[in-house]
Write a structure and sequence with these properties.
By secondary structure, this protein is an alpha/beta fold. Helices cover about 50% and strands about 10% of the residues. The chain has an eight-stranded mixed β-sheet with strand order 3-2-1-4-5-6-7-8, sandwiched between helices. Strand 4, helix 4 and strand 5 form a beta-alpha-beta unit. Helix 1 packs across helix 2 and helix 10 crosses helix 11. The two termini are about 20 Å apart. About 30% of the residues are buried.
């Protein structure tokens, strides 16, 4: 399976099943890289909505950089799931995070696709083994979990199930690399994978701090935006803490700050989402938005991400290494 824009190799034809926020993000990224896409969604009028959204996103994609042969015209909308899958060389499923829905959809995908096609799910936490057990060809299935906005953020977590073949993982990794992404291959399957487990821990602690009246949503976001968030974009958590140890590195850091892990600083269990906590979270983030719509905030986020990754590219660190190679 190929995925390049060279003169002698045809780009991979990708089938997109499900065109919500994540599925649409996949379509946008693929079109920007010159991949033909055939998409399907069960909702009425999805084709018009998808085409309209791609047109809206195209200036952003161009600002981030598109291939010479990139075009919204590479998109085809299928009338049935089977029509989308039977011609696809790679299928990316992005339906709701419900195991029963996933089972129904993957039975159909498995039956409709060519036996050479790889099938990936954008699931954000389900175990791949639980999904692939309904497939007659489970060896070609894996999790390919991206991050929103998919058309800009490079991380994609690749999670094999018990029946996933090594060849499938290798081909999928090559596929995502050709999309200028950073495939993070997990050693074994685990609920929530890696990034969402880390995000979930931070999210639960934020809910506790709001619930206990310790901080507002703005204060919590400021605590990340102006400090660790900037470091995380370059080095993540572990390497950042390695530096916190000075010349002694991580070993000294753990010797010096390790005892603090026994202090009751954080709550690992989420508080009850009662009406009061929900209202605090909703009103707090609404106040932060300062009247800006979701579309306006998304555009602001996208523009900032492009500039941040562009800045990181100058030093070839973090996500900037991928941007500098595009």
């Amino acid at each position: 399976m190929s995925n390049t824009t060279g003169n002698n190799i045809k780009p991979t034809l990708v089938g997109i099943i499900g065109t919500g926020v994540i599925g649409t993000g996949w379509v946008a990224r693929l079109l920007a890289k010159g991949n033909p896409v055939i998409a399907w969604d069960p909702s009425p009028g999805f084709a018009e909505r998808l085409e309209s959204e791609i047109q809206r996103l195209w200036p952003t994609l161009q600002k981030n950089g598109v291939n010479d042969n990139a075009s919204p015209d590479l998109l085809t909308c299928a009338e049935t799931l089977e029509d989308a899958c039977k011609v696809a060389e790679f299928v990316q499923e992005s339906v709701p995070e419900d195991l029963e829905i996933k089972h129904e959809v993957h039975r159909r995908i498995d039956a409709a696709t060519n036996k050479e096609a790889i099938v990936a799910s954008s699931s954000s936490g389900l175990l791949p083994s639980d999904i692939q057990k309904v497939c007659k060809h489970p060896d070609r299935f894996l999790i390919g979990h991206p991050f929103n906005p998919v058309y800009l953020l490079p991380l994609v977590e690749l999670v094999p199930g018990k029946s996933t073949s090594h060849a499938t993982m290798a081909s999928a990794e090559a596929h995502y690399k050709a999309l200028n992404m950073h495939p993070l291959v997990l050693q074994k399957e685990v609920e929530g994978y890696l990034s969402d487990r880390l995000q979930e821990a931070l999210w639960r602690e934020a809910l506790h701090l709001v619930n206990d009246g310790v901080a507002t949503t703005r204060q919590l976001d400021d605590a990340i935006i102006y400090g660790p968030g900037l470091r995380w974009a370059i080095m993540g958590t572990c390497l950042t803490f390695h530096l916190a140890g000075g010349k002694g590195g991580m070993r000294h850091m753990l010797e010096q700050f390790g005892p603090a892990l026994k202090l009751p600083w954080t709550h690992l269990e989420a508080p009850e989402l009662n009406d009061q906590l929900i209202e605090r979270m909703v009103s707090g983030t609404a106040e932060q938005a300062e009247g800006q719509s979701i579309d306006e905030l998304e555009k602001l986020r996208d523009d900032c991400l492009i500039e941040i990754m562009g800045a990181l590219a100058k030093f070839e660190v973090g996500a900037g290494k991928l941007t500098s190679n595009s």
